[in-house]
Amino acid sequence: MKRDSLPASPKSPAKVELKVVRIGNSRGVRLPKAVLERYEIGDALVLEAREEGLLLRGKKDKRLTWEETYRAAAREKEDWSDLDATLADGIEPGEKW
Question: Would you say the pTM of this structure is higher than 0.85?
Answer without folding.
Answer: no
